[in-house]
Amino acid sequence: MTVGIDPLNPAVAVAPARRSRRRMSSRTGGALLTVGAPLALFVLLAIAWQWTAATFKSVLPPIQDIVTDIAGRPEFYLENLLVTLEAALLGFLIGVVVALLLAAAIVHFRFLRAAIMPVALLLNVTPIVAISPALVVAFGFNQIPHVIVAALSAFFPTLINSITGLRAVDPQALEVFDAMSASRTEVFFRLRVPSSLPYLFAGARLSVAAAVIGAVVSEFTGSSKGIGAVIVMATTYLNLPQMWAAIFFSALTTLALLGLVGLLERLVVRW
Prior knowledge:
By secondary structure, this protein is mostly helical. The chain has two domains: 31-58; 61-268, MetI-like fold, CATH 1.10.3720. Helix content is 83%, strand content 0%. It is built from ten helices and no strands. Helix 3 runs antiparallel to helix 4 (111-125) and helix 5 (128-139) packs across helix 6 (144-167). The longest helix is centred in the N-terminal third of the chain and has 46 residues, at 10-55. This is NitT/TauT family transport system permease protein. Keywords: Cell membrane, Membrane, Transmembrane, Transmembrane helix, Transport. The chain crosses the membrane at residues 28-51, 87-107, 119-141, 147-166, 197-217, 243-264. Belongs to the binding-protein-dependent transport system permease family.
């Protein structure tokens, strides 16, 4: 059956066009708000930064001084950034893998939760600044202490989110698997893992940021390379442009890694 447009009632033909224009206007307004609001805030922050730098010269350097310092020796910052990034990513990988394995074990053997969680909580509340010097004494002036600190920083968020996600399964779906006499392995990989993916990626976002922070902070002690060492060096010589350039590099690197995790989540989680 074909439905035609009533020529005696123009509103019938105009209404869909109006709705289409409203949707287009709403999308355009949403896009402008998404881009314009952060941009306006950044402009205001830049103005406030420049005013503070001009009024309190020992607090913040002018933005142009930071840009000039970066442009004058980009290889210096990139070389140190790669050192920090190597420790952060390796620590992130180790921390996430260990956390996933322990989470899977806790879900299948519940008595392990009482044994593992107090130790994990103790590691989480221990200050990184206190751990780093002890690791330098134990392992020497190399990358191992920084990787360990990054791994410890990334471990807890992934562990908590993994346990929560692996347990957050639909009871009815679990009953169906039980009715089909599915093994624990089948339930784990076909039900628990897919349903836990949003939790796992949420934990990954927290962990990758924590790993970068841990790597940078660990480089404050016992390191001559890395973004953390650059910050300490700049603090020693009161070199504000270098210090803030290093801070900006670490922040931008963390944002880039968060963007990569978000992109991977969009590719993997399609519901």
